Amino acid sequence: MRPIITAFKASPDRGRGLARDMAVRWALEEVGLAYDVRLMTFDALKSPEHRALQPFGQIPTFEADDVAIFESGAIVLHVADQRPGLLPADAAARARAIAWMFAAVSTVEPPIIERSMASLLERDQPWFAARQALLDQRVQVRLADLSARLADGLWLDGAFSVGDLMMVAVLRRLNGSGVLEAHPAVEAYVARAEARPAFQRAFAAQRSVFEASERAVS
């Protein structure tokens, strides 16, 4: 069975490639696995049929043969297991690549998301400036750590892997914020990943959905 993933029919990211199906599309492109997409409205996300696949009513999900899973990180890891290209053959290097996946979603992403949500929802509050300074500092600490790690290499641990894919998917949330510019090694790392042909194909595929939704309402 050809894999089917779910994605927003009208993504709130406005075509910037930030919705969480992007990492899954990218992984599928990296390993050369063709896939289909089931586009979901916000109402459809709450349907019993979708909640049977994704209990929280979110995207993405992944279905292929007897596998039906959710959560972008879990899907990316499953895809990486299917074909060579994203997980090292060496067991120790493989374990480190997976550790970097967890670092991306558990250590680096939380302060980035918190900063973004504060900027979006709390800007009019009298305490916003002080809180934003604290959130900026937390993000800067993580970026400084990544800069140190990247000082001697193109990727986090040898060749490009699922760890890099998930890390860059997280870091891209800072694009346009001015934050990455303070860390040239991290900024260059994101740019290298975005230049990969597989990323470009995944981005174009997701962007085409946004453009179609825009045409539909114009």
From TrEMBL:
Superkingdom of this protein's organism: Bacteria
Gene Ontology terms, MF aspect: transferase activity
KW Transferase (keyword) present: yes
Family matches, as PROSITE patterns: GST_CTER (PS50405), GST_NTER (PS50404)
Record's keyword annotation contains Transferase: yes
Domain spans labelled GST N-terminal: 8-87
Keywords: Transferase
InterPro entries: Glutathione-S-Trfase_C-like, Glutathione-S-Trfase_C_sf, Glutathione_S-Trfase, Glutathione_S-Trfase_N, Thioredoxin-like_sf
Limits of the GST C-terminal domain: 90-218
Name of the protein: Glutathione S-transferase family protein
Organism: Caulobacter vibrioides (Caulobacter crescentus)
